[in-house]
Predict the 3D structure of the following.
Amino acid sequence: MHDCPTVETERLTLRPFRDDDIDRYLAVHSAPEVMASLHIPETFDREDAWNQMARHRGQWALRRSGQWAIELKSTGEFIGRAGTHRPERHDWSSLECGCTFDPAHWGHGYATEASRATVDWAWANHDDDQLFSVILPANAASQGVAQRLGFTLLEERTLDFFPSLPHGIWVLPRPE
Ligand SMILES: CC(C)(COP(=O)(O)OP(=O)(O)OC[C@H]1O[C@@H](n2cnc3c(N)ncnc32)[C@H](O)[C@@H]1OP(=O)(O)O)[C@@H](O)C(=O)NCCC(=O)NCCS
């Protein structure tokens, strides 16, 4: 079993989820912009929020991968989540990097900063030859983060967890 580590960047703390993150986790994932981007159903509620947080934390224990809770150092506020994702899915290529932030904090480079720390952490702690990111073609903001980190679009593919639309499969090879 593995512990979820804590990582510091210039402006952010990437830390394990805590039980008392639930109100802010629910608020971030109930923001209309986030619901639209992630196709979160109107039924998403406190129970779903807690189950997701528990899954993130559990993935760290089982696979040493998972999402961190992201705190803004200057205020201590929970502003989103970021990290890796390796679910048990037959059509999941390898270790995915992904993030979701409170729309109130978009446009400051926080997603790029957290994702850069995610990529660095993944190279240092996993053996994968490449990282990938699964992004819907309409999600320009997420594509912008991927491009700033050096990911390139490999292909579009329909994945079983989301059969209604193809996803862009973005890849980043391990540096030499
Ligand atoms: C994906 C998501 C996290 C991106 O957030 P974001 O705020 O656009 O991304 P960044 O934090 O990297 O900020 C980039 C913007 O900040 C600006 N910026 C300001 N200071 C910056 C800095 N120090 N470094 C980098 N960019 C900076 C950039 O110019 C860019 O502006 P632009 O959007 O006008 O081009 C956000 O849109 C989101 O949470 N979406 C909903 C969930 C989602 O879709 N998740 C991804 C699923 S695949």
Notes: The domain at 7-173 is CATH 3.40.630.30 (Aminopeptidase). The radius of gyration is 15 Å.
